[in-house]
Each structure stands twice: as C-alpha cells, then as structure tokens.
Amino acid sequence: MDQKQQDKMGKAPEILWEEIAMCQYLGDSLRQAVVEGEVALPGGLREETVILSAQAMAVVEKVTVQSGRADVDGKVIFHVLYTQGDPTRINTLEAAADFSQTIELPKARPGMNVPVSLTTEHVEASAQGGRLKLMAILKIYARLFGEEPMRMVGGLRPADGLMQKTETLQTCRTVALGQQDVLVRDECELSDVLQITDTLYATAAASVQDVMGGEERVTISGVIDLEVYHLSAMPSRPLVITRHSIPFEETLPLTGEEGDLLTADAVIRDVAVLSQEGQEEGQRTLRAEVLIGLTAQMTKRRDVCLLLDAYTTSGDLICPQMQPTRRVLAQRQVRTAESGKMTLLLDGEPPARTPLTAHLRPIVTDVTRTGGKLTVEGMMEVCFLYMTDDTAAPQSYCTEEPFRTAFACDLCQPDALTLQTTGVEVSCVTSDRVEIKYILHLSSYDVALGEEPFVTDLSHQPAPADDSGILIYFSQPGESVWDIAKRYRVSCDSLRAMNPVLDGAEATDGQRVILWRR
Fold first, then answer.
1. Residue 293 above 70 pLDDT?
2. Handedness of CA 35, 38, 42, 46 (dihedral sign)
3. Which residues does 331 contact at the CB level (< 8 Å), separation at least 6?
4. What is the distance between the alpha carbons of residues 132 and 126, in angstroms, rounded to a whole number?
C-alpha cells in the first residue's frame, strides 16, 4: 500500500501486543480397545476347568506424543479364579498382556502433555485345550494440552473515534511437574477365625488425601485400600476376603518454579501379596507390596487484559482477526464416593446358601449435571460367587444390572471420570434373592475451560458511505448495545443518549432502536 492510499484511509490505530504463555486445551479422544492374552494352565489337559470369575486392571506405562497422535503403551493384569479337576478347590492364575494403541490427536506435537485414563469395561476368560484365553475391553480417554506462547492483541492506543472493548481474563499454565513410582510395603496379622490356608491375590485402590509442596519438593499422603482373596478351611466357605487400609506419605522432587495451586494423583501399578504361617498355631501374617505411581503438578494463574472487539465511528473499518482458544482456567483432582445397593434374582440358578464374594464393574452410559450434583447412570457387571446346598463346589453367576448414583460434586468435563467399587458386601435374603452393598468411588482429573476467542491481529478496509436521516432498527436475539453501536458506527454513549431505554448492556429481543444521522 502506497503513502497516498494510507493518507486517504487514515492512520491505523496502534496495536498493543501481549505475549502470553498459557495452558490450552487442544482436544481429546475417546475410544475402546480390545486386549487379548493367552497362558497355559498348570493342570492336565483332561481335567475339567470351570471359570468362576475374571478381573483385570489396566495400567499405562508410557505415552509418546508424535505429530498428530499419541502412542499409548501399557499392560492389563488379569486375575482368574477357577477350579480344575477337583471342583471343590479354588485356584487362581495371574497373567499380564501388553498392549499398544495409537490415539489420533490432530493438533498433537512432540513435547505436549497427553494424560491418559484407562477404564476396564469388560473381562472374559475361557479355558480350551489346556490354555486360558483372556480378553479385556478398555475405554481409553486421552486429552491434549499445549503451553506454547501466543501473541495476542492486548488493546489499542486511544485515538479519535476509536471504540474498543477489553476484558480481564484468567489464564493458567503449568510451572512445575513431579513424577515417581513408589513401592509401599505393609504387613498385618490375619485372624485365626478365618482359617486361612493360602493367599491368592489382591486388588487395590489409591487415593490422595493431602499434598504439600515447597523448595522444589512435594509431599503426597494418602491411603491404599486393599482387598485380599484367601483360601479358607472353614466348612462351606472355601474363599474369604480381607480388607486393609495402608497409609502412605512420600516425598518426590518437583521440577520448575513456584505457582499458585498444587495438585497430585496416585494410581496403582502393581500389587503383590503373600501370607505365611506364624510361630503359634493358627497364626498367619499377611505381607503386601503395592507399587503406586505418584504425579504432582504446580500451576500458576495470571490475569491478562485483552482486546475483545474494536471499531471506529469514522474512517476505515477495523476487522479483528479472531482465533478460537480453549484456555485452561484451573485443574483439580476430584474424588468422592457414595454407597449403593442392588438386588440379584437367581432365576434358574442353583439356590444360594453361603455368599462368598461379588465382583462389580461399573460401565457409564450417561452423565447429567444439575444443581451442583453429578448423576451417573450405567450398567453394573456383576459376578457373584456362592455356595449351594446341593454340592461342595462353588457356584458362579454373572449378569448386568442398571445403576444410578448422584454424587455431591460437579465436573467441567464429565467424560474424564472413572468409577471403581470397593467394600462389597453380599448377603442372601432368600435362596434366590441376593442383596449386594457397595461403595462407588468417582475419580476425575477435572479441567475448567474458558472458551472466548482471542484477537490475534487487526486488518482495515474502506467503510461504505453512511445514509443520513432517521433509522429505526429492531434488536435481534442475544444482541448487545455494543453490537448495535458497532453495526451503525456510533458510540455506546451516543446510542443510549438517543435511546434512554437502553440502560443496560443487553438489548431486549425485538426492541426498537432509533438512530439519527446528519
């Protein structure tokens, strides 16, 4: 553009730039994956094998971010209860199956942060030809965060006829990270009343209760809830469950600078249990080792004043160039729990005499947010183990039951939640009716987002000639006083002076607005 054209169009407003480093939410991906494994059974090929139950725990071991995708490597640890040969003796088998999944994230670049959560939605085990075939269906949810600096318009230097609207917006960025795997050990005495003869396996859930940081270190404390499966010599009860709470407090390095908010998370990576006879008769000691993955994150908030819109009442038109941005306002770890209860009808099954245990696996189908509460609906996979009067062999009954639970919390991103059951208690109401009580735990690393578009640049173009006279305009739904003033290139004060009824920021739908132009 030559100097004559610039003089004709007028001097462009001077842009005041802001270079801001902030955490942006760049997308997510939700998908299912099938993980399969196979392992040899220790018994003979001719021995009949009956699968009683199958459980599985999925663990993320590595996330590699590439251009346009994230490669997720992990493993699924299976625990199977079964009988082989002798239908009265319960056996257990532990096996692991590795998996690798590619998650498509179009905006991903190496070095970006991609947290991944796994949920085991279904588990199957079948015996054939002396081998055990295993299958798990996983829900994989990945989110993409970027923290590259952005150059945005903070405002314009005041000039004649210039109207601009700015707003102070909150941003957040990650300033420090810490990550470490920790082995937690514990031991306790098992009651001789349970007559435990052997310990099979254990499942665990970890929760963070407190996090404190300072001087490049963070201390995370919490509790590991352990459920241990044992063989028992009690008549009519070959399987017993013991529950234990293991406190932990671990300090790990935090690399980065000081921030405003510190959050932490703990996930179970592996569980090993063993029980041994004590010196006295009937005495038995349980030893447990739990590998937990600890992560900590320090974030820092910053309020920035940015240009939202601008126009001039004379001269050239100003055309803001907008870029949609989903900025992170805050990150927080949400954990809560509610009790639940369901009734099973053993229609057509052998009558129940003594309940042994029940494995519950929740599958979420719908989430609604109302009045500060989160209502979660879904199907609960149930595997019920029990004894009957007709035989000394344990029985297994698997089914699905609907559930609906309201949690006293609210989430900005309901898709990120995971559910887990603990404290399962089973009682037989009648021979064909079973009541199951449980505690349903909700966990989510929640992210609050702001989604206002940012002005990243300004362009100019000649303005059409204004019509003189009196104009009557009827406001459109959702239109503000600023929108009408910008449309007709008058100041908001002038528009209100001509229309005293426009005393607020918003205009009423279909409101008559009068403009007078000379």
1. yes
2. positive
3. 172, 261, 263, 297, 299, 445, 446, 447, 448
4. 6
Distance between CA 163 and CA 167 in Å, rounded? 14
- One-letter identity of residue 162: L
Which residues lie closer than 8 Å to 128 by C-beta, 6 or more apart?
A: none
Residue 253 has pLDDT above 70, yes or no: yes
Q: Alpha helices, DSSP H only, in 11-170?
A: none
Cα dihedral: 399, 400, 405, 409 (round 10)? 110
Q: Please tell me the distance from the alpha carbon of residue 270 to that of residue 203, in angstroms, as a whole number.
A: 9
What is the reported pTM? 0.86
pLDDT above 70 (res 10): no
Length of the chain: 518
pLDDT in tens, 266-280: 999 999 999 998 777
For 332-346, how does the pLDDT look when each residue is reduced to its tens digit (9 = 90+)? 889 999 999 999 999
How far from chain centre, in Å, is Cα 329?
Answer: 16
CA distance 256 to 176: 4
CA-angle at 290, arms to 284 and 294, nearest 5°? 155
For 155, 172, 262, 288, 329, the CA distances from 146, given in Å and listed in that order, are 25, 11, 19, 39, 13
Provide the b/e sequence for 2-24 (b: ≥16 CB within 10 Å).
Answer: eeeeeeebeebbeeeeeebebbb
| pLDDT for position 508 | 78
Q: DSSP E strands: which ranges in 278-394?
A: 284-312, 317-323, 327-345, 354-370, 373-387
Residue-wise pLDDT for 155-198, tens only, equals 999 888 899 999 998 889 999 999 999 999 999 999 999 999 99
The residue with greater pLDDT, 236 or 294, is: 294
Of 40, 58, 60, nearest to 49 (Cα)? 40
Q: Which residue has the tokens 């607020």?
A: 504
Q: How many CB atoms lie within 10 A of CB 474?
A: 11
Helix (H, G, I), strand (E, B) or coil at 336: strand
